[in-house]
UniProtKB/TrEMBL annotation:
Protein name (Swiss-Prot/TrEMBL): HTH araC/xylS-type domain-containing protein
Pfam family, one: HTH_18
Record PROSITE patterns: HTH_ARAC_FAMILY_2
Domain HTH araC/xylS-type residue range list: 178-276
Species name: Cohnella abietis
One Gene Ontology MF term: DNA-binding transcription factor activity
Annotated InterPro entries: Homeodomain-like_sf, HTH_AraC
SMART domains, A to Z: HTH_ARAC
Keyword Transcription attributed: yes
Keyword terms, alphabetized: DNA-binding, Transcription, Transcription regulation
Domain of life the protein comes from: Bacteria
Amino acid sequence: MPQVDRYKQRTVNVEFSAVEDCSALPYSGRFSLIFIKSGSIKGTLNERPISISAPGVFCLAEDDELQVNEKDKLAAQSFSFHPEFLNTTTLAETQDYFPTTPSIQTGRSLFQREHQNTAIPRITEKAYPLLFEWFFVLGTEVLAQSDELWVCRIKKYLIQILGLLEDLNRVSAHSPVDVVLDYIHTNYFKKISLEDLTNRAHVNRVTLNKLFQERCGYTAIGYLLSHRFKIACELLTHTGMSLNDIAGATGFEYDTYFIKQFTVKKGMSPTSYRTTSRRFATYQ
């Protein structure tokens, strides 16, 4: 059932199920994220066989066709949301309407079916605990509505979860670059040095940067900063988080350093970017 926001007297089209048996999936008119905590599930998705074992995640669009044939000691949780939930900005929340064009693009590929594997993202051993932690907090916010910013925090965690799943899907091999990409995508909010990255890749900094330039068009640290700014831009546009909170969520130790680096990279301050991006999202 959609949630009634007790702070702003509106309906928020999200739902969290702490016990998901997968028998009614997919939910009509909603996108769904299903976290498999233990056990396994087998069946067909859009007439193609699937098999998912814990720890795992799968993503369902509203028009997917899922048939579950076998469940073995399954324990799962789900978060579902109306596609219009991706359209909202903080401005739209206060004015109680939706822009006509979706604004949040992070993770949308997970619900598109050009390729079957988008429904079942690749999950690494290091990524799952982080994903599950974010998913747990997201679910807690849906159920508790701890303060008037609960929708803002749900968007934050949803952006982070969808973004990480999308990034993991793009990494398939185990080259030094893939190892470092995996590390960056799951640790970008922490303090990371070039030495940390070379130690992960087991190559020297010259080799790592050369490989990154060939693959990504950035040095290793350049890619890290680019990824941080990508997440920061989403949080600036689609949440009401303070600059200090966004700095902490994207690996910048201080908001003053974040503001300086963001301004150099984007050619405008984070506050100006937030104002401009919201205006564009509202009127496009």
